[in-house]
Amino acid sequence: MAATSGTRYDHEHAGPLATPRGAAPAGRVPLTPHPDRLLPSEPSQRCIARRLYDSVRDLPLISPHGHVEARLLADDDAFTDPASLLVTPDHYVTRLLHAHGVPLADLGLRDSADDTDPAQPRDVWRTFCEHWHLFLGTASRGWLEAELHDVLGVTVQPSADTADELFDELTVRLRKPEFRPRALYDSFAIAALATTDDPTDDLSYHRALAEDPSWSGRVVPTFRPDRCLDATGSGWTTALDDLAAASGIDTGDYDGLIRALENRREHFRAHGATATDHSAPDARMAFLDAVQAQRLFDAVRSGTASADDARLLSQQLLGEMARMSSEDGMVMALHTGSRRNHHPDTLRRFGPDTGHDIPLQAEFTRALQPMLERFGTNPRFQTVLFTLDETVFSRELAPLAGFYPSVYLGAPWWFLDAPRAMYRFRDAVTETAGFYRNAGFIDDTRGFCSIPARHDTARRVDAAHLAGLVAEHVLSEDDAALVIHDLHDRQPRKAFRL
């Protein structure tokens, strides 16, 4: 006997169950995130975790690395609709729907190989709502529920039956003054927000915010020079030309390129930047002498170099970034271990950052030794290391951070910013490096409304993890309360020099 659609069925007793008291009619399921979500199931630990979580739940948010643009806050334009806000720009969402056969164009992404327009926002939202169940068990589901319920006031779950109703409700709500970007920034209690910016950016939106007497928030740029450092990329020479135009320095030789990069770093520092960010294939850096570097640059620039030469030049330029950080004090955040744009056709048609970047195996001990030999004990140098390879947490990263004063452990990032992965990270690194070689939490998001949801998830996970240590008498509850406060306030400020 099969259960009919919308009927709860008890397979053990082979009979339909009564509809729970207070349940919504079929097709209208309440959206009610549990107040104890992610906290331990064991009652005594849950009580400890509640107290720890309550002690930090309202702390101001420190967001030292993310991809929200300063323009959003400078312009302060109202969001137009929920699909454009929550679905189309979020590759966590689009990649999973794509895995289930939903074309990216149906999610609002423009296909350069097709002259037709992508799906309209209402249709995108319908598609998302019809596939809501696919996010069960994922970190994205928790974030989306928090965004919808806690930020946007939604009280029913997305579904095929509620899609149009929710679209209309949210479209009207997003036009209200309290849901404009600056009002949301204030309601999120963000103390500092770092954007991620190309070296050629004039930072006019950051400047506009800083000069706006009605704005009291803190938004700082982050220097992201990847396209100028990646000599293996087809767009490298164009990037150097753009850098020359922005800096006013000829990048036709190696020395000019280095001076142009230094010039732009200073421009960023003048606009409040405290960090650089690098998404390198791996952590290897080279430190060639000036003659070797110029010879290598000339060969790559002229198109006569081998692929290995281009990779070596990229590693040399990354090494120059470490050298510059040791001199100007900008924190060097290093994100490694991803095979970017794994599917060439998707890259060609829809561009980068569309969900097909895949983790790779990482290695740090040998790769970073030349850099740390030079700068690892330099008091002006500081680096935050991120990886997508969990196997190096305890084997390499924790021992490195447990010796070098310049090395901080980056939070679990991207595919690893999920609750269980956060647990594994804490278990892997804490016994070797402690809590205070950690950079706290980063949200690393393009989705503005997901910032508080992601930070709340991290605070709940840390409360649960620390509650277990308190229950095992590894920490006192007072110590745990100090640690969780520092992980979400002191440590990100210190690691990113905010």
From TrEMBL:
Top EC group: isomerase
Pathway: Carbohydrate metabolism; pentose and glucuronate interconversion
GO MF annotations in UniProt: glucuronate isomerase activity
GO terms of biological process kind: D-galacturonate catabolic process; D-glucuronate catabolic process
Gene3D superfamilies (UniProt xref): Metal-dependent hydrolases (3.20.20.140), uronate isomerase, domain 2, chain A (1.10.2020.10)
Keyword Hydrolase part of the UniProt annotation: no
Keywords: Isomerase
InterPro entries, alphabetized: Metal_Hydrolase, Uronate_isomerase
EC number: 5.3.1.12
Pfam families on file: UxaC
Superkingdom classification of source: Bacteria
Keyword Isomerase: yes
Reactions this protein catalyses: D-glucuronate = D-fructuronate
Family (UniProt): Belongs to the metallo-dependent hydrolases superfamily. Uronate isomerase family.
Protein name: Uronate isomerase
Taxon lineage: Bacteria, Bacillati, Actinomycetota, Actinomycetes, Pseudonocardiales
